[in-house]
Amino acid sequence: MTLDAEFDRAFRLHQEGKLREAWFRYEAVLKAQPAHAAALHYSGVVLYQAGKHAQAAERIRAALALQPAQPDAWSNLALVLDAVGRREAAVNAHKEALRYSPDAPELLVNLAGGQLALGDSEAAEASARKAIAGDPAHAGAWYNLALSLVPQGRVLEALDAASRAAGHAPAQSAYAGLKAQLEATLGAGTAARQTLEAALARAPTNPALRFQLATIEDESGALGAAADAYEQVLRLDPQNGAALSQLMFVRQRLCDWHDLPELRARFEAGVTRGTPLLSPFVLLSNSSSRALQRRCAAAWSAAQGGVVAPVTPRLLSGARLRIGYLSADFHTHATAYLAAGLFEQHDRARFEVIGYSTGPDDRSPLRARVVRAFDGFVDAADWSAERLAEAIRADGIDILVDLKGHTQGASSRTLALHPAPIQVHYLGYPGTLGGGLVDYLVGDAIVTPPAHAEDYAETLVLLPGSYQVNDRRRPIAAPLPRDALDLPADAVVLCGFNSAYKLNSSVLDAWMRILEQAPAAVLWLLVRDAADPQVRNLRREAVRRGIDARRLVFATTRSNPEYLALFLNADLFLDTWPYNAHTTASDALWAGCPVVTWRGETFAGRVAASLLHAVGLPELVADDVDDYVRQAVALAGDAADRTRLRAYLGGPGRASALFDTATSTRSLEAAYEAMADQYRRRVREPIRIGPP
Fold this sequence. Notes:
- The chain is 53% helix and 9% strand.
- The protein has an eight-stranded parallel sheet, with helices on one face. Strands 10-9-8-11-12-13 form a six-stranded parallel sheet, with helices on both faces.
- By secondary structure, it is an alpha/beta fold.
- It starts with a helix and ends with a strand.
């Protein structure tokens, strides 16, 4: 057999996917002719396919040294470079390929993909458009064009491009998936569902499409359909961490706990095993240790944020530190309700404060108030992580304060790019972020005591009193009469207004014990709508525990002042665990309703204890579940004690440290100055701020 015939045989085997046989034949060619450029090139591709990236790059470079004018070899080198994270070098290799075939649509599409990986959406758009000019039916070019338009905020144009991609290549699931994603973004949920159902008719076993359909159902509020779809994903892909997380979360929101023990066991085993995309936020509302939460958060950060960029040392601002607050919640959201006063109260002689918003503008009065509170406000809702990081860097932010953590809409990738010399997490997520995304975590002596430091990836900052800032300017509407709220006129009203995902069988067990021992009491819960499935499910669970279902009363969501007024008709707030009431507990205390809790082992389970200490009622923090039940029953039967507590909260409680926005702001500012001082001295140590 001639050398050319031997190479052709190797190449055919390679095309058939027989990598081992192809490798040995390429090696035979190279043994006979070490400078055989094609054998070097394609044996390098075999090495790349086998995951041996360093050796692959060496082989392909050797081929290019012999014959530089090989666009395919340059493209394959780019693939290898991209696989090892050398994205800029990969783009340069794509450009070299185009030197030898400047108008080849496939090469232009590859270049656009590399430019997208670098975050250069405008360059990617130009490359994709040039590819389309050469081949108007090139589906990959339309797809990359759509991807390049999204970070530029041109969603309608992106949808048109994605529709063309899907039309030219209907069998490509990714193209249909992007089309559906953009339809959902534009509020066309029905169209998105139809797109996905059509794609699934062609590829019924595609877990990515099935997961996307589940997400559409989830976000539309069709939780039962979402649960079914997530279950189907797990049947197709049992190790799908995202589907497992979301199925657990949907079950909790529905108060459907029938298989939660099994799902939790799978989740915990997955964290231990390293299953990707298990949500640390979902873990917070399920029994877990701080160590497990840290491990889960670290894996999530690595997946969402990618490689953490090194910090580039620079001089901090002098007279006024530049503080950037990063959040998707600068609208009608619990974080904005808590922090609006903080942004307003900052000492402008010492701090310049800029808000970076990655969430929606709901055009609400709260949004307008938050925008006014900052010295500068950047609406970055449609920006790529790279563009946002560059803006933060260009603004000279000294301390970037993340208010999201691992909640929906988080900016993990932006944090991983480390656009500020000092990065901090505060308020929005009760736990470690893991993965080196931030330097400091702001807590207090109760939620993050020094003894727990090893369970946090960040250096701890302890504020005096409670870490949670509150706003004194929150109005409370006039209360409605009890009969307008379906509450018995003479009942003791025990409320539990936490979100449904914080409820669980252990909490309900305790609550039913309380109702059993307090026969004059009713349990008042909050739901979106009286027809929500959790109403039926919770009443069924109550009956299982021997409690009349009519003793569970449900209020529906309403404006914040009207919601706060609900607490005026409540006698006692019952907390949840392992995820406490956070903003909701502050709401109750602000409206004068006493709260009973017990201190757990994790940040999320210790917040209500922190709030009660700060408001001056530490005696309402129970030692364990039995003590919690005992205290709740005692208060349910003691009207005079409840009256005393409400009077306290209406007077000294309102004047307490918990609701002193100005003092909380000064404490946080002292922490920022301590961080800046440590940065200038090139040290990082735990920070404890003393009382004013």
